[in-house]
Amino acid sequence: MKILVMGPPGAGKGSQSQKLIQDYDLSHISTGEMFRKSYERGEDLGKKAMAFINEGNLVSDKITNEIVRKRLMKPDASRCFLLDGYPRTVTQAKALDVMLSEMNSKLTAVINIVVDTDIILERMVGRRVCKACGHTYHLKFKPPQKQDVCDQCGGELYQRKDDQIDSVRNRLSIYESKTKPIIDYYKGRGVLVNINGMQSFDAVYRDIKKALRDLT
Ligand code: ADP
Ligand code: ADP
Ligand code: ZN
Description:
The protein is an alpha/beta fold. The protein contains nine helices and eight strands.
């Protein structure tokens, strides 16, 4: 199974991906998470990327395609994977097609999570992330048992710089102009499914699983 999870920032891509990778035993490939990890390790790539990320801008296609290519070449990714937050531009979608055809492979499903802007803003501003394991919480919709502490690993929760309101607005406008056109790119291939993301975590997950059953 090779799944791509799409949607505006805050749609619930990461939350749903965390469940999917466990249930279907997939390698999770999140470009945002890879950039944040690289930054924490003090690597040049991470430092370069974080300058764009903090402002809510996209990292260049060249850098992004390169880290995905390297990741897809690792043995665990050759069979089953879930791409979360990649591709984000039509140029990246085309590059991914080339990588997949080189692997003699193609996408099983493109899950597009649809959420209105007012809900997105509320989700982004309340999002908190574990510094240690990357697990995601929400102050109102998914609070941790103990304030500022990760239920999974005891790590410290923080608010991403790019989840502050100015940066979020910039990310939403970039989503509209650069990322949304990808939906048309995948239309007509018989793999694209729109999922209503304005439901509870469990209801969204149920709809995704149903869509995957229909496609496989
Ligand atoms: P979110 O979960 O809110 O959609 P991500 O964690 O996926 O955010 O990504 C955080 C940031 O990392 C993005 O706003 C962007 O700056 C950068 N980034 C992640 N994936 C890509 C990509 N495929 N192309 C360019 N930049 C990316
Ligand atoms: P993305 O990866 O698309 O940016 P996340 O999965 O990180 O989105 O979700 C953004 C925020 O919204 C997180 O704080 C998450 O806990 C919360 N969230 C995600 N899905 C739902 C949902 N169905 N109902 C309420 N809150 C949600
Ligand atoms: Zn944690």
